[in-house]
Amino acid sequence: MSSEEETFQASSSSSSASPPPASHFIGKKEDIVKAVRVTKLVNGCRNVLVLYHQGQLHAMDTRCYHSGGSLQYGDIEEFNGKLCIVCPWHKYKITIAEGEGLYQAVDNPMVKPLRTHWCSKGVKQRIHKVTEVNGDVYVTLNNSSEAIESDVYQTERYRTL
Ligand code: FES
């Protein structure tokens, strides 16, 4: 990976010095690092949260898949070895790399004290790709046709609430 460009969250990286096709400029990396979290309406249609954590940039739908909580105010904590953003509304845990919803299941409710283990609900929050080119940060929207629950809060109705 060159010093001119680093691709975060994606398994692939590119050595070119131009932004990926169909990507959208978010801001200067130094400004995002300073702000830690930035939200932006991308392509006029999607509210995206870009956050900087432990040297990496991540992007996801801003509103929580559960009930539309603003993830920009969520803490980041590690659960079951995965970094998660914790929604400030009802404390749902969402992995910042995959958008998975995590929860703790009880092994056997009849056995006290209760023992729990972490489970995944699958991908619930749409994660987008972040690319840095020459200090500029771009987001490429994840346009997969697969429905993801956070899509519900990307309608005009919720964006204007
Ligand atoms: S709105 Fe996020 S946990 Fe309920």
Automatic annotation (TrEMBL):
Report domain Rieske positions: 33-90
Please report a single Pfam family linked to this protein.
Rieske_4
Mind listing the UniProt keywords for this protein, alphabetically?
2Fe-2S, Acetylation, Iron, Iron-sulfur, Metal-binding, Phosphoprotein, Repeat
GO MF annotations, alphabetized:
2 iron, 2 sulfur cluster binding; metal ion binding
Q: Which InterPro entries match?
A: Rieske_2Fe-2S, Rieske_2Fe-2S_sf, Sol_Rieske_ferrdox_dom
User: Which parts of the sequence are annotated with region: Disordered?
Assistant: 1-22
Q: What is this protein called?
A: Rieske domain-containing protein
Recall the taxonomic lineage recorded for the source organism.
Eukaryota, Metazoa, Chordata, Craniata, Vertebrata
